[in-house]
Each structure stands twice: as structure tokens, then as C-alpha cells.
């Protein structure tokens, strides 16, 4: 086998490796995008839960104050 054939085979192997790397890179980009979307969704959900928790805490505190006021009456 002469050096020209070897160079051709080396280029083909390199091309296959590059194609594989491109596929892996695309897959990782898609996975990263999906994870970022999921994180944004979870952050928004958490913010909503924190707000609901604070609202519930305020209502319970108000009920406690009303009960104490009734006891003192």
C-alpha cells in the first residue's frame, strides 16, 4: 500500500471521527437545552410554592391573632 492510499484511509477515518464528534456535540447541546428548560421550569415552580407557603403562613398567623383576641374578650 502506498502512502497515497494510507493518506486516503487516514482521511476517511478522521472524517468518521469528526462525524461522530459532531453527533455527540449535537446530542449534548440538545440535552443541555432540555436541562436548562427543566431548570427554568423548576425555578418558576419553586417560586410559586414559596409564594403559596408565605400566603398560608400569613393566613395561619392571622387566625392565631384572631383566636388570641377572642380568648381575651
Walk me through the topology.
Blueprint: H1 3-72
Summarize the structure.
This protein is mainly alpha-helical and 73 residues long. Helices cover 96% and strands 0% of the residues.
How would you characterize the overall build of this protein?
This protein has 73 residues and is mainly alpha-helical. It has a domain at 49-73. The protein contains one helix and no strands. The chain has one helix spanning 3-72. The chain is rod-shaped. The mean pLDDT is 96.
Indicate the proportion of strand residues: under 5%
SS class: mainly alpha
Portion in helices: over 70%
- The 3D shape can be described as rod-shaped
User: How large, in whole angstroms, is the Cα Rg?
Assistant: 31 Å
So how many helices? 1
Separation of the first and last Cα atoms: 105 Å
What kind of assembly state do the chains in view correspond to?
single chain
Largest sheet data: none
Number of strands: 0
Instruction: Indicate the low-confidence ranges by residue numbers.
Output: none
Q: On the 0-100 scale, what is the average pLDDT?
A: 96
Sketch the topology as an H/E string, one letter per element: H
Amino acid at each position: 500500500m502506498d502512502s497515497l492510499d494510507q493518506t486516503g484511509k487516514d482521511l476517511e477515518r478522521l472524517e468518521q471521527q469528526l462525524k461522530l464528534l459532531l453527533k455527540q456535540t449535537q446530542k449534548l447541546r440538545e440535552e443541555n437545552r432540555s436541562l436548562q428548560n427543566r431548570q427554568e421550569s423548576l425555578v418558576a415552580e419553586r417560586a410559586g410554592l414559596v409564594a403559596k407557603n408565605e400566603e398560608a403562613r400569613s393566613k395561619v398567623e392571622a387566625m392565631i391573632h384572631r383566636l388570641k383576641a377572642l380568648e381575651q374578650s
